[in-house]
Amino acid sequence: MTALRCAGLRRSFGALNAVDGVDITVEPGARHALIGPNGAGKSTLFKLVSGTMRTHGGTVELAGRDVTRLSEVARCRLGMSQTMQHASLFGSMTAAETVALAAARHGGGRISPLPRRQPAVQERAEELLEGVGLADRRDVPVPALSHGERKQLEVALALACRPSLLLLDEPAAGMSPAESARLLELLAGLPAEITVLFVEHDLDLVFSLADSVTVLHLGRVLLSGTPDEVRASEAVREAYLGAGRREELFGS
Amino acid sequence: MTAVEAPAVPGGAAAAPPRAPRGRVGLLVTAIVVVLAAVPLFLAPFATTTLTRILVFALFAVSLDLLVGVTGLPSLGHAAYFGSGAYAAGWVSINVTAEAPVPLLVGGAVGALVAALTGWITVRSAGVFFLMLTLAIGETVQQLANAWDSVTGGANGLTGIPSVRIAGAPLTNAGFTYWYVLAVFLVGFVVVWLVARSPFGAALRGIRDNEPRMRAIGYPTALYKYAVFVLAGGVAGLAGSLLAAQARIVALPDLGFLTASFALLAVIIGGAGSLWGACLGAALVIVIRDALGPSLGGHGTLVLGAVFVLVVYLLPRGAAGIRLRGRRS
Amino acid sequence: MLVSVLNGLAVGFLLFILAVGLSLVFGMMDVLNLAHGALFVLGAYLGAAFSGSWGGFLAALGIAAVAGLAAGALLSLMTAPLRRRSHLDQALLTLGVAFVVAELLIIFFGDDPLSVAAPPALDGSVTVFGAVYPAYRLVLIGVGAVLAVVVYLVVERTRVGALVRATVADRDMVATVGIDNRLVTTAVFAVGSLLATTAGVLGGPIYGARPGLDATVLILALVVVVIGGLGSVRGALVGALIIGQVDTLGRLMLPELASFVLFAALAVVLVLRPQGLFGGPVAAGAR
C-alpha cells in the first residue's frame, strides 16, 4: 500500500492551470522531495494534498483511502500533518503551549471544557520540544523565537499530530546555513515509519535527504525517480536553467 | 511575512494565566468577594441597586468577552441573547413561577437556544463579516420581539415581573436581590473563567491567534466557535434573567444595538481577553449610563460615545489587538 | 403588486445612494463606517426641520450636502491615524461617533418620531397603469436612478473613478506607483457621506425621522454592501435593487417576518458566496 497517491490532480486559477493532471505516488517510509522551478505548481499541489485548497479534478489517496472530499481537519485526523512555508504559529502562546495544543488534540483524550492537569500531554510536548532541540526554549513566547526556532517549532507542532505522512513546505526557507544544517539533522533523524513529502528550493538539502524526487514543471510532472535519475536528466536541466548549465545547478 | 504577531493581551487573565503566587491571588479574590458581599450592609439602597445593575451587566460583558477576547469574534449582536434570556425569565416569572432556579435556568436555556439557532451562520464568517452578521441578527431578534407582542409586550416591554422567590419568600428588599444577583454572577464568572483556562479555552485562543493553523493541526474550528457561541449565549441569557429579576421590566432596548455596543465597549475598556477588565468596564458603562446619566440630562449615551472614541485612540495596542481577518489577512 | 414593485424600486435606489459610500469607503480604506446610518438620520432630521416648502426642501438638501461633506472629511481624518490598526478599532471609532451624532440629534430635535412631508405638488398621488401611487415616490425613483447612473459613470468611466477602483483592487500597488491617494480617499469618504445625508433628506418623506432609525438603515446598507461585495459599485446597485424588492415584498407578504426575510437573504448570500455577488475573491473575509 502506498502512503500517498495523487491521480490526475488539477487546479486552475482562471486561465492558468497551476496543477494540470499530476500523478504522484509516495511509498511508505519514503523521503520524497517535490522540486521544480518557480511557478511549477509546487505550492498549489501541496495545498491540494493537505486539503487547504479544493481540487478541480483528480483524487488524493492517503494510505489507500480516498480523502479527496475530506477537509484538512479530517485529513489531519487520518494521519496527515504539515508545516507551513511561512512559520504560522500562535502569537499569544509559548513554545510549550503551542505543541501542547496539538498534543492534546492527538493524545486520545477529549478536549475538556474545564481546567485539568494533562500530564501525558505535557510529557509529550516536552518530548517533542526536546526532539527538535527547543527544550530550553519551552517557556519563550512564540514572537520572541528566532526564525529558525520557529521553523523547528513548526516541525514539533506537526509531529505532535502523530502523522503517518508529514508534509513540509519549504522547511529551510529563510534559514542560515547553520540553521539549515540543524534542520537536516532533525529531519534525517525522524522515525522511519513516518513518510515525508517535502517541497524545497535548497537542492543540497533535497539531495541529502530525499530517496525519491518528483520534478514539477508548468503544473505537470516532468520526471519522477531517484535522485540520481533526476541529476542525470536532460529535461530537468532544461526546465530549470536551459541547456548547458547542469554542473552549475547540481554542483557535485 | 510571518503570521506571528505580538501577544494579543498583555497579562490578561484569560489570555495568559497570571503566574502570580497562587496564595496572594486567592487572598485578593476572597477579599473582593467578601467586600462585595458586605456592600448592602453599608451602602444606601440606591447605591446597592446601581451595584446590582453593574453585576448584571458585568456578567453579560464577561460572556461577550469569551467571544471577543478569548476567541477573537467581535460581536455587535450579543444583546440578542441577553435580551432573550431576560424576556424568557420574565415571562416564566409572570406566567409560571418566580421560584428561584426556574427563571435562571429558563433564561440561560433560552439565551443558549437563540444563540444555537443563529450561531451556525455567524461562526462560518470572520472579522468584519462577523461584526455585520451579528449586528443584523441582533436587529432581527429585536424586530421579532417587537412583532411578537402577545408574549413580549411589544413596544411597551414586558412589565409586572414579580420578584424572584427563594423557598417561597419573595426577594423584595434591594439587598436580598443584590445577594441573589451576586451569587449568580459569581457562578457565571467562575464558569467562564474555568472554560477560558481549560484545554478548550486554549483551543479558542488558538483560533483567535491563527484559525487556519488550528484546522491544519486537526481542530474542527467551526464546531469550536459554535460551541463557544452557544455557551456565551447561555451565559448572556443567565445575565438576562438577572436583569429581569433586578429591573422587573424587560424592554426592546435590552435586546438592541445600543446594549450590545455598550457591552462591547465594556469589554474593550477592560482590555479584551481580561475577564476582570470586562467587569470594570461594565462598571464604568453602568455608572455613566445610569448613575451619572440623569445629571447629564439623560444623555449618558453622548458621554459613552465620546468614551468609545477616546478608548480607541488611547489604548496602546488598539482594541487589545483583536485581529479582524479582513481583506489583507 | 405593481405598487410593491415601484416601492421596491424607490427603496432600492435610495439604498444604493446610501450604501455606495459605505461600500467604497470600506473598499478603499478598509474602514467599516458604522456612523453611516447616523449620517442618513441627520439628513432625515434636516428634511424634517425644513419640510413644507420647496425652498425648505432644497435648503435641507443643500445643508445636508455640506454637512455630509464636512462629516465625511472629519471621519476620514479621524480614522487616518488608525490605518495600521485592526479594522475593529476603526469600526469602533465610527460606532462612538454614531452614538454622539444620534444623541446630539435627540438633544436638538427631541426623541419623538417626526414625520416629514413631501415638498408641495409632490405630496399627492398619481395614477400609474391604473394604480394610485404617491407622486413623491415616483419622483424619488427618477432622482435615484439619475444619481445612481451619475455615481456609476463617475466611478466606472472617469480618471478619478479609475483611481478609486484601482485603490479598491490593490491599495499598496497604487501607493507604490507613486500616487498619493490620501486626497482621493478623503474625497470618497466625504462624497460617500454626502450621499448618505442626501439619501436621508430624500428618504425622509418615506421613513420619517426618529431615534433608532440609524441602526435600521445602517443594517439595510450593510446587507446591500455584503450582498453586492465590498467595494463594488455595480454590486451595490444590484444589491440595493434586490434588497429594495425583497424588503417591500417581504413587508407585503409576511409583515411580521419582514426583517427575517432580509436576514435570510443575507445569510444565504454569505454562506454561498462569502465575497458577495460582485466582490473579488480578495474581499473574502468569511469562509
Automatic annotation (TrEMBL), chain A:
Residues 4-243 form the ABC transporter domain. InterPro entries: AAA+_ATPase, ABC_AA/LPS_Transport, ABC_transporter-like_ATP-bd, BCA_ABC_TP_C, P-loop_NTPase. Signal peptide: none annotated. Keywords: ATP-binding, Nucleotide-binding, Transport. Gene3D superfamilies: P-loop containing nucleotide triphosphate hydrolases. It holds the Pfam family BCA_ABC_TP_C. CDD domains: ABC_Mj1267_LivG_branched. This is ABC transporter ATP-binding protein. One of its GO terms (molecular function) is ATP binding. PANTHER family: CONSERVED COMPONENT OF ABC TRANSPORTER FOR NATURAL AMINO ACIDS, CONSERVED COMPONENT OF ABC TRANSPORTER FOR NATURAL AMINO ACIDS-RELATED.
Automatic annotation (TrEMBL), chain B:
It is found in: Cell membrane. CDD domains: TM_PBP1_LivM_like. The chain crosses the membrane at residues 25-48, 54-73, 178-196, 223-245, 257-288, 300-320. The keyword Cell membrane applies. Pfam families: BPD_transp_2. It is a multi-pass membrane protein. The keyword Nucleotide-binding does not apply. Keywords: Cell membrane, Membrane, Transmembrane, Transmembrane helix. It comes from the Bacteria. This is Branched-chain amino acid ABC transporter permease. It comes from Pseudonocardia zijingensis.
Automatic annotation (TrEMBL), chain C:
The keyword Zinc does not apply. InterPro entries: ABC_transp_permease (IPR001851), BCAA_transport_permease (IPR052157). It is found in: Cell membrane. Keywords: Amino-acid transport, Cell membrane, Membrane, Transmembrane, Transmembrane helix, Transport. It comes from the Bacteria. Pfam families: BPD_transp_2. PANTHER family: ABC TRANSPORTER ATP-BINDING PROTEIN (PTHR11795:SF442), BRANCHED-CHAIN AMINO ACID TRANSPORT SYSTEM PERMEASE PROTEIN LIVH (PTHR11795). Belongs to the binding-protein-dependent transport system permease family. LivHM subfamily. This is Branched-chain amino acid ABC transporter permease. It comes from Pseudonocardia zijingensis.
